[in-house]
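User: Thanks for the earlier help. One more: dCMP deaminase family protein. Can you show the sequence and predicted structure together?

Assistant: Of course, both are below.
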Amino acid sequence: MTEALRKDWDTYFMDIAFMVSTRSRCPRRHVGAVLVQGKKLLGTAYNGAPMGVPDCSEAGCMIVEEYEPAVRGDDSTMLKKQRCIRTIHAEQNLLLFTDRIDREGSTVYVTDQPCWTCANMLANSGIREIVYHRRYPKDYEKVEQLMEQRGIQFRSLNGYTPPADTETQDVIA
Protein backbone atom coordinates (compact mmCIF):
# COMPACT_ATOMS: atom_id res chain seq x y z
CA MET A 1 0.00 0.00 0.00
CA THR A 2 1.50 3.34 -1.01
CA GLU A 3 1.15 6.40 1.16
CA ALA A 4 -0.66 9.32 -0.42
CA LEU A 5 1.52 12.33 -1.14
CA ARG A 6 1.23 15.06 1.44
CA LYS A 7 0.90 18.68 0.41
CA ASP A 8 3.77 20.93 1.33
CA TRP A 9 3.03 23.57 4.01
CA ASP A 10 2.82 26.46 1.54
CA THR A 11 0.21 24.65 -0.54
CA TYR A 12 -1.69 23.55 2.56
CA PHE A 13 -1.98 27.08 3.98
CA MET A 14 -2.71 28.68 0.59
CA ASP A 15 -5.48 26.11 0.05
CA ILE A 16 -6.96 27.22 3.37
CA ALA A 17 -6.75 30.88 2.29
CA PHE A 18 -8.67 30.03 -0.89
CA MET A 19 -11.28 28.08 1.08
CA VAL A 20 -11.68 31.07 3.43
CA SER A 21 -12.16 33.35 0.39
CA THR A 22 -15.34 31.44 -0.50
CA ARG A 23 -17.03 33.21 2.47
CA SER A 24 -16.70 36.55 0.67
CA ARG A 25 -19.82 37.93 -0.96
CA CYS A 26 -17.94 40.55 -2.95
CA PRO A 27 -18.98 40.31 -6.62
CA ARG A 28 -15.64 41.76 -7.81
CA ARG A 29 -13.08 39.56 -6.05
CA HIS A 30 -13.00 36.93 -3.32
CA VAL A 31 -9.89 37.24 -1.16
CA GLY A 32 -8.85 35.08 1.79
CA ALA A 33 -6.00 35.51 4.26
CA VAL A 34 -4.47 33.16 6.82
CA LEU A 35 -2.09 33.95 9.71
CA VAL A 36 0.42 31.21 10.51
CA GLN A 37 3.09 30.98 13.21
CA GLY A 38 5.43 28.10 12.37
CA LYS A 39 2.94 25.45 11.31
CA LYS A 40 0.16 26.66 13.59
CA LEU A 41 -2.90 28.36 12.09
CA LEU A 42 -3.74 31.45 14.19
CA GLY A 43 -6.46 33.19 12.22
CA THR A 44 -8.38 33.52 8.99
CA ALA A 45 -10.23 36.38 7.30
CA TYR A 46 -11.90 37.34 4.04
CA ASN A 47 -13.00 40.56 2.34
CA GLY A 48 -16.46 41.95 2.93
CA ALA A 49 -18.63 44.65 4.46
CA PRO A 50 -18.43 45.33 8.21
CA MET A 51 -20.43 42.93 10.40
CA GLY A 52 -24.15 43.71 10.50
CA VAL A 53 -24.02 45.95 7.42
CA PRO A 54 -25.47 44.96 4.03
CA ASP A 55 -22.71 43.74 1.74
CA CYS A 56 -22.16 44.46 -1.94
CA SER A 57 -24.32 41.52 -3.07
CA GLU A 58 -27.22 43.05 -1.11
CA ALA A 59 -26.64 46.81 -1.43
CA GLY A 60 -24.35 47.10 -4.45
CA CYS A 61 -20.71 48.07 -4.66
CA MET A 62 -19.61 51.57 -3.60
CA ILE A 63 -17.10 52.24 -6.37
CA VAL A 64 -14.83 55.28 -6.31
CA GLU A 65 -12.35 56.26 -8.99
CA GLU A 66 -8.86 57.46 -8.20
CA TYR A 67 -6.01 58.63 -10.39
CA GLU A 68 -2.38 57.97 -9.56
CA PRO A 69 0.75 59.05 -11.43
CA ALA A 70 2.62 56.18 -13.07
CA VAL A 71 6.20 56.81 -14.16
CA ARG A 72 8.06 54.30 -16.33
CA GLY A 73 11.39 55.59 -17.51
CA ASP A 74 10.81 58.91 -19.26
CA ASP A 75 7.06 58.28 -19.70
CA SER A 76 4.57 59.65 -17.20
CA THR A 77 0.86 58.83 -17.29
CA MET A 78 -2.10 58.83 -14.95
CA LEU A 79 -3.31 55.40 -13.85
CA LYS A 80 -7.05 55.09 -13.23
CA LYS A 81 -8.06 52.85 -10.33
CA GLN A 82 -11.53 51.81 -9.29
CA ARG A 83 -12.13 50.39 -5.86
CA CYS A 84 -15.04 49.51 -3.64
CA ILE A 85 -15.12 51.40 -0.37
CA ARG A 86 -17.86 49.23 1.19
CA THR A 87 -15.48 46.29 1.57
CA ILE A 88 -12.89 45.72 4.27
CA HIS A 89 -9.99 43.82 2.74
CA ALA A 90 -9.11 40.34 3.95
CA GLU A 91 -5.71 41.50 5.26
CA GLN A 92 -7.37 44.32 7.22
CA ASN A 93 -9.88 41.90 8.76
CA LEU A 94 -7.04 39.53 9.63
CA LEU A 95 -5.24 42.34 11.49
CA LEU A 96 -8.46 43.39 13.24
CA PHE A 97 -9.21 39.89 14.52
CA THR A 98 -5.74 38.68 15.56
CA ASP A 99 -3.44 39.77 18.36
CA ARG A 100 -0.19 41.64 17.78
CA ILE A 101 1.72 39.11 19.88
CA ASP A 102 0.53 36.30 17.58
CA ARG A 103 1.62 38.24 14.50
CA GLU A 104 5.22 38.79 15.66
CA GLY A 105 7.43 36.77 13.30
CA SER A 106 4.47 35.11 11.59
CA THR A 107 3.53 34.48 7.96
CA VAL A 108 0.43 35.70 6.13
CA TYR A 109 -0.86 33.59 3.26
CA VAL A 110 -3.20 35.61 1.06
CA THR A 111 -4.92 34.66 -2.18
CA ASP A 112 -3.96 38.01 -3.75
CA GLN A 113 -0.97 40.28 -3.40
CA PRO A 114 -1.87 43.02 -0.91
CA CYS A 115 -2.83 46.44 -2.23
CA TRP A 116 -0.78 49.46 -1.15
CA THR A 117 -2.95 50.22 1.90
CA CYS A 118 -2.92 46.63 3.15
CA ALA A 119 0.81 46.37 2.49
CA ASN A 120 1.41 49.42 4.70
CA MET A 121 -0.70 47.91 7.46
CA LEU A 122 1.04 44.53 7.19
CA ALA A 123 4.44 46.25 7.21
CA ASN A 124 3.66 47.56 10.72
CA SER A 125 1.94 44.41 11.99
CA GLY A 126 4.93 42.35 13.14
CA ILE A 127 4.76 39.73 10.38
CA ARG A 128 7.96 38.49 8.75
CA GLU A 129 6.60 37.03 5.50
CA ILE A 130 3.77 37.43 2.98
CA VAL A 131 2.99 34.62 0.56
CA TYR A 132 0.42 35.28 -2.19
CA HIS A 133 -0.93 33.61 -5.32
CA ARG A 134 -2.39 36.24 -7.67
CA ARG A 135 -0.34 39.32 -8.47
CA TYR A 136 -1.91 42.79 -8.22
CA PRO A 137 -0.19 44.62 -11.11
CA LYS A 138 -1.27 48.16 -10.16
CA ASP A 139 0.62 48.12 -6.85
CA TYR A 140 3.18 45.36 -7.37
CA GLU A 141 6.39 47.36 -7.70
CA LYS A 142 5.82 49.78 -4.84
CA VAL A 143 4.57 47.01 -2.51
CA GLU A 144 7.59 44.87 -3.35
CA GLN A 145 9.88 47.83 -2.62
CA LEU A 146 8.15 48.51 0.71
CA MET A 147 8.53 44.88 1.80
CA GLU A 148 12.20 44.94 0.85
CA GLN A 149 12.73 48.14 2.87
CA ARG A 150 11.01 46.57 5.89
CA GLY A 151 12.86 43.25 5.57
CA ILE A 152 9.65 41.29 5.08
CA GLN A 153 9.87 38.26 2.80
CA PHE A 154 7.44 38.78 -0.06
CA ARG A 155 6.87 35.96 -2.48
CA SER A 156 4.46 34.53 -4.97
CA LEU A 157 3.61 30.86 -4.69
CA ASN A 158 4.77 29.75 -8.13
CA GLY A 159 3.15 26.75 -9.76
CA TYR A 160 0.28 26.76 -7.26
CA THR A 161 -3.20 25.66 -8.35
CA PRO A 162 -6.12 26.67 -6.10
CA PRO A 163 -8.62 24.03 -4.99
CA ALA A 164 -11.55 23.41 -7.32
CA ASP A 165 -14.53 25.76 -6.95
CA THR A 166 -12.61 28.41 -4.98
CA GLU A 167 -11.64 30.85 -7.72
CA THR A 168 -14.14 33.41 -8.91
CA GLN A 169 -14.23 35.23 -12.21
CA ASP A 170 -12.79 38.36 -10.64
CA VAL A 171 -13.17 41.87 -11.98
CA ILE A 172 -10.40 44.30 -11.06
CA ALA A 173 -10.57 47.66 -12.71
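User: Great, one quick takeaway?

Assistant: Residues 9-49+87-156 form a domain with the Cytidine Deaminase; domain 2 fold (CATH 3.40.140.10).
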